[in-house]
Write a structure and sequence with these properties.
By secondary structure, this protein is of the alpha/beta class. Helices cover 34% and strands 18% of the residues. Keywords: Cell membrane, Lipoprotein, Membrane, Signal.
Length: 355
């Protein structure tokens, strides 16, 4: 099956000590939580090691999305760059400061945190530990000399999967579609990392099929699969036969509900086709694993820069994939042809959701 970027259905990182996939595999052994995951080391004996700690948000590294991708990138860096790595998983927001502090006190060279929810903690602790390099994934940051933010132009990959869905709705190009011109979205919170995906999706659908309306609902949280399922059932009752979850762990319930109802889902962050092969028809991919490796490599080699670094289609930071035989090749080719126009700026995509 042709894709915009040839990426296997499951991005297997052979170096993962826990056997995690880039998109993750739910049957793999879960990494340890905060207890015992950041051992106290003998700093004298480890003086020449470059140490990188990863602090997950409360979604944990089995969330099938950004936390797992960050962890995959961390383990790839460990294997390919020779750095020492450790993980601490946060169980609640109150864990953020102590978890980050633990790595800082243990002399880690770089601490990577997942998501905007840890911005305040990093802002506070970066001043207390000015020799430590901090990276916040999925959040912009400015004017802190030892902190880098990483953002992704997910409006670009959102646009591509939206364009694909719009084309599939023309004449019902896949089995089981209804006659209603409605597709659904479940967002976690109305924040930039979520809304950029949704905005791109809206514009992509409108590009290829202006008759289709995009019904957007927010769950208000990222860790409630039951709520995701409930919202999806409501979207289905309102006519949606495609649903796009941009809601972390809440999105797992969206995909399960879509599978049960025999409609289609769009994966987010990773290639999520493996979660429901006949349901997840395409995925908008935020290549957090690649970005994580790139940030570690730069820091290890002395090229760490504070401020915000953006990843997009041009530097491989985002992409789309469709690992199913349900999508006709001519439609994939049409979507793929849009990539050059996005890279060149011919197609301009806003990251702002249309209300």
């Amino acid at each position: 099956m042709a894709t915009a970027k040839k990426i296997p259905a499951i991005l297997l990182s052979l170096t993962l000590s826990f056997g995690l996939l880039s998109g993750c595999a739910s049957n793999s052994k879960s990494p340890k939580t905060s207890e015992g995951t950041a051992p106290i080391t003998n700093q004298a004996s480890q003086a020449k090691e470059f140490k990188v700690g990863l602090v997950s948000d409360t979604g944990g590294v089995n969330d099938h999305t950004i936390n797992q991708l960050a962890y995959s990138g961390l383990k790839t860096a460990e294997a390919t760059l020779g750095v020492k790595t450790s993980l601490i998983q946060s169980k609640s927001a109150s864990d953020y400061v102590p978890n980050i502090t633990r790595f800082a006190q243990d002399g880690y060279d770089m601490i990577i945190v997942v998501g905007f929810t840890m911005s305040d903690a990093v802002t506070q602790l970066s001043k207390q530990y000015p020799q430590t390099k901090f990276v916040i994934l999925d959040q912009s940051i400015d004017n802190i000399p030892n902190v880098a933010g990483v953002t992704f132009k997910t409006e670009e990959c959102g646009y591509l999967v939206g364009a694909l869905v719009g084309l599939l709705k023309q004449g019902n190009k896949v089995p089981g579609l209804n006659e209603k011109n409605v597709v659904g979205v479940v967002g976690g919170l109305p924040i930039p990392p979520v809304d950029s995906y949704i905005a791109g999706f809206q514009q992509g659908v409108q590009k290829t099929n202006p008759k289709v309306a995009v019904n957007v609902k927010y769950a208000g949280k990222f860790d409630d699969a039951a709520l995701g399922s409930q919202i999806t059932q409501q979207l289905i009752s309102e006519g949606s036969d495609f649903v796009f979850p941009v809601a972390g762990g809440t999105g797992n319930g969206v995909i399960n509900a879509a599978k049960s109802a025999n409609i289609y889902a769009i994966g987010v962050d990773a290639d999520q086709n493996y979660l429901a092969p006949n349901t997840v028809i395409t995925s908008a991919m935020k290549n957090v694993d690649k970005a994580t490796v790139d940030m570690i490599k730069d820091a290890k080699e002395g090229y760490f820069k504070s401020g915000t670094k953006s990843f997009d289609l041009s530097n491989g930071g985002v992409s789309f994939v469709s690992n199913t035989q349900l999508v006709p090749k001519e439609i994939l080719d049409q979507v793929t042809s849009l990539i050059g126009d996005i890279k060149s700026g011919k197609i301009q995509i806003s990251p702002i959701v249309k209300k």
